[in-house]
Specification:
The complex is a heterodimer of chains A (89) and B (452).
Chain A lengths: L1 E8 L5 H11 L3 E10 L2 E9 L7 H15 L2 E6 H8 L2
Helix pairs in contact in A: 1-2
Chain B lengths: L3 H12 L5 E8 L9 H15 L3 H12 L3 E8 L2 H8 L4 H14 L3 E8 L8 H14 L3 E9 L3 E3 H17 L11 E5 L20 E7 L2 H9 L6 H30 L3 E5 L12 H7 L10 H17 L19 H8 L5 H8 L6 E7 L4 H17 L4 E8 L7 E3 L6 E3 L10 H5 L3 E2 L9
Parallel strand pairs in B: 1-2, 2-3, 3-4, 4-6, 7-8, 9-10
Antiparallel strand pairs in B: 1-7, 4-5, 5-13, 6-10, 11-12
The chains are: A alpha+beta (89), B alpha/beta (452).
Chain lengths: 89, 452
């Protein structure tokens, strides 16, 4: 099972490091990372594998939300299927 | 990997543009609960609903968390209770109390099916059920009631139409202390669909499987935001944008519906391709019409704009889903739509215009607050007009009006939650329709019914 972690906010040092540390703590494997600037906002999108995750999915979401608040970014964790079904026929 | 723009689009739709799944509705047949003993019948109903829908709410919440998409309501729809009342006899309100108790146990937002299908005439149980509607809705909180009074195949049962005018008034009177909220949960149909997940008209038709899961999508805010990016395009472009957006919205419904059905072990029925507004700012069908270029919803051009919207929603949605059904189209419930409420307040949107709009979109005169002194025969005549539109055009139409008992024009009723609030709207013609309605009988089915 795979999920998409999206991180949105103002660019600063250490964003990738803090999010990937949180992933490692939850045994979440990062498959791919893309980042870009959209409408003056820094956007980072991570595709992660959560098959062997050590916590439940809602806990990962809570952890990431809390991390987002701590580093001043908005972080969402959503199941990959929602994007696949909306944008791929 | 997915495109970063696509990912951001989905996130924006959900976080900022109010994209949500309006409802997952579990339809279940109660025919196997019918019993000649009323108490036994009620016991079986309670047992079946609480067994089949036990995990409906929990599963809905799990899916919300997994996919990050809100599922606003979890609902149950059951076999029209008039059929069970036919088998058992006795006071149908006992069924209403049983459904209410079951709905509280499983924690659903609404339970629909306190219904009778009388488009050609009344059979055992129908009259008793219809007469009990005011009491049933006054006594309960979660029950929704519907009566089908006409169809393209059968014509209009004008005895039932006459009766429903009185029932709507009586329901308003019995719930006058709570802003007449009973009428917000009572809908009179022509051509009622058997697989509709939306309230107040959901019931589980007799041609349906024993248990099935239907999904109703939402997303007017998403459509409006997409159109806002194209202020100068012609109407062909507008239609294309709506189609593309409706496709994406409906894919969410398909995903959530199939996942819920897998987790619950219940067959997936249909996705209802509807643009269902909420009173929240940014979630309004009226605002989509205004984004197309109308100064206000209700002005000249509104019917044409709505026809375009309704058609494009269906064209976009139909490919996104394996089975489409229910009401499928844009809804125009006045008190549930921030833009409609504003237009009704300013007097730009009239009931007469709304009636014209119902000829080209889903459902009908929906959630309209009318003066409290409106005679029952006038309400029946409103129902007859609307049912005639449905009958002749082979589409579903419905009337859900709320006579504001004790309130005059300009005052407002508030129902709370998704049902919203709205002003008492003027009826522009106060001449009597009573003699026409009192004739009763049936309006014969139109030529359109003879397709064989």
């Amino acid at each position: 099972m795979r999920a998409i972690i999206s991180v949105i906010g103002t660019d600063r040092v250490g964003i990738l490091a803090s999010v990937s540390t949180a992933c490692a703590e939850a045994n979440v494997n990062i498959v791919d990372v893309t980042q870009s600037v959209l409408q003056n906002m820094f956007v980072m999108v991570m595709l992660v594998d959560i098959t062997d995750m050590s916590v439940d999915f809602p806990i990962l979401q809570q952890k990431m939300n809390a991390l987002g608040e701590k580093i001043g970014m908005v972080i969402h964790v959503m199941h990959e299927d929602i994007f696949q079904s909306m944008h791929r026929i | 990997m997915l495109n970063i723009q696509d990912i951001m689009e989905t996130i924006t739709m959900i976080q900022e543009e109010n994209l949500d799944i309006r409802t997952i509705t579990m339809g279940m047949s109660l025919l196997d609960c019918a019993d000649s003993d009323l108490s036994r019948s009620c016991d079986k109903i309670y047992e079946k609903i609480t067994r089949l829908a036990e995990k409906l709410v929990v599963t809905g919440e799990e899916i919300e968390r997994t996919y990050g998409i809100p599922i606003i309501h979890k609902r149950v729809a059951v076999t029209p209770i008039a059929m069970l009342a036919a088998a058992s006899g006795g006071d149908p309100v006992r069924y209403a109390r049983t459904l209410e108790r079951a709905s509280r146990t499983v924690g659903v937002n609404f339970i629909g099916g306190y219904s009778a299908l009388v488009h050609k005439g009344f059979s055992a149980g129908d009259l008793a059920l219809i007469r009990s509607i005011p009491e049933a809705l006054a006594e309960t909180e979660h029950i929704c009631s519907s009566v089908n009074v006409g169809s393209t195949k059968a014509g209009l049962n004008m005895d039932a139409v006459g009766m429903m005018g009185r029932i709507v008034r009586e329901t308003a009177e019995r719930t006058a202390g709570q802003d007449c909220i009973g009428c917000a949960k009572l809908v009179v149909f022509c051509n009622a669909p058997e697989d509709n997940p939306f309230m107040a008209g959901a019931f589980h038709g007799v041609g349906e499987p024993d248990c099935v899961l239907n999904v109703g999508v939402s997303g007017p805010g998403v459509v409006r935001a997409a159109l806002a990016k194209c202020p100068d395009g012609d109407l062909t472009e507008v239609a294309d944008i709506i189609k593309r957006t409706a496709f994406k919205i409906t894919r969410m419904g398909q995903l959530v519906g199939s996942e819920a059905s897998r987790r619950l072990g219940v067959p997936f029925g249909i996705v209802d391709l509807s643009l269902a507004p909420t009173p929240a700012v940014g979630d309004s069908v009226a605002h989509i019409l205004e984004e197309m270029g109308l100064e206000v919803c209700g002005t000249h051009g509104t019917t044409a704009a709505l026809a375009l919207l309704n058609d494009a929603v269906k064209k976009g949605g139909v490919m996104a889903s394996s089975h489409v059904g229910g009401l499928s189209g844009a809804f125009i419930p006045v008190t549930e739509d921030a833009g409609m409420i504003e237009a009704a307040r300013s007097g730009d949107l009239s009931i007469e215009k709304l009636e014209a709009m119902t000829a080209v979109c889903s459902v009908g005169l929906d959630m309209i607050v009318i003066p409290g002194d409106t005679p029952a025969e006038t309400i029946s005549a409103i129902i007859a007009d609307e049912a005639a539109i449905g009958m002749v055009n082979s589409k579903t139409t419905a009337v859900r009006v709320i006579p504001a008992i004790g309130h005059a024009e300009g005052e407002e009723l508030s129902f709370g939650g998704l049902l919203g609030s709205g002003p008492v709207m003027k009826l522009h013609n106060d001449r009597s329709s009573a003699r026409f309605i009192r004739r009763g009988g049936r309006i014969p089915a139109p030529m359109q019914s003879l397709k064989n």
